[in-house]
Amino acid sequence: MTSLSPETVKTIHHASELIKNSHRTVVLTGAGISTPSGIPDFRSPGIGLWTRYLPMEVASLTAFRYNPELFYKWLHPLAGHMLSAQPNPAHIALANLQNAGYISTIITQNIDGLHTRAGAKNVLEIHGTLNTLTCINCFMQVSSDGVIQEYINNCTIPYCQLCGGILKPDVILYEEQLPIKIWIKAEEACQRCDLMLVAGTSLEVMPSAKLPIFAINNGAKLVVINNSETYIDVRAEVIIRADVVDIFPEITKIVLC
Ligand SMILES: [Zn+2]
């Protein structure tokens, strides 16, 4: 863990007080909470996933339909990282806070399932998940248990056992709508909360980036924990400019003491 400045310690205490005194806290997480688990932020340039391929050429719905082989080739290193990744202290701290009754809903833009694996409940995966796949032909949904591992090990593209169509991971690609039922739940959670924590996300991807607005417009307080600026910082009661993995365990210690 990096040593925290006195200013950061002060903001951690302020955020902890807000959490203790709130009745309904919602957390929105992004790639920043998963990078300490070894999962690269696949939207960031220069980490290999976007440098070899243009996103729209491989990770859009059109691209998937025309060239699923290329999509699966692109996904391979990312899926490999995700399958071997373990929840980190930030995931575990959030799950502990939630299990102690301090967090009602965790909304995540991540597709790695690490919040749930850390023991969190009521996790809304607004950008989808690698846990299931759906046939693009007959829409049968299957668990990725075994299927993804087989693909990681042997680069085998998964096909539907019912109709032979190609299976697409239930992650949201460019040109795709977010899963509507999950999105509505996320919107409602933000509208009903009295405290929102934005953690490990630069809020650059729409429409997820507007979720904190629903919270603020309904009177909720806002805490931003991120190592770079976000557009919503100006509306935040507390800004903690640090990695979430250094902050959430500290917050949890204070709140649960
Ligand atoms: Zn099928």
Please tell me about this protein's structure.
This protein is of the alpha/beta class and 257 residues long. It contains 10 helices and 9 strands. The strands form 2 sheets. A 6-stranded parallel β-sheet has the order 3-2-1-7-8-9, sandwiched between helices. It has a 3-stranded antiparallel β-sheet with strand order 5-4-6, with no helix packed on it. β4 (128-135) and β5 form a beta hairpin. α1 crosses α10, α4 (68-84) crosses α7 and α8 (180-192) packs parallel to α9. The longest helix has 17 residues, at 68-84. The two termini are 20 Å apart. The mean pLDDT is 91.
Helical amount: 25-40%
Give the N-terminus to C-terminus distance in angstroms.
20 Å
**Cα gyration radius (Å):** 19 Å
| Apparent shape | elongated
> Which cofactor or ligand species appear?
zinc ion
**Beta-strand fraction estimate:** 15-25%
Low-pLDDT runs: none
Spatial arrangement of strands, main beta sheet = 3-2-1-7-8-9
Number of strands: 9
Number of helices: 10
**Arithmetic mean of pLDDT:** 91
Structural class, by secondary structure, is: alpha/beta
N-to-C SSE string, H for helix and E for strand = HEHHHHEHEEEHEHEHEEH
What's the story with the biggest beta sheet? 6 strands, parallel
Query: Please, what is the oligomeric state?
Result: single chain
Brief summary:
It contains 10 helices and 9 strands.
Looking at this protein, list some descriptive labels.
single chain; 257 residues; alpha/beta; 6-stranded parallel beta sheet; 3-stranded antiparallel beta sheet; 10 helices; 38% helix; 16% strand; elongated; binds zinc ion
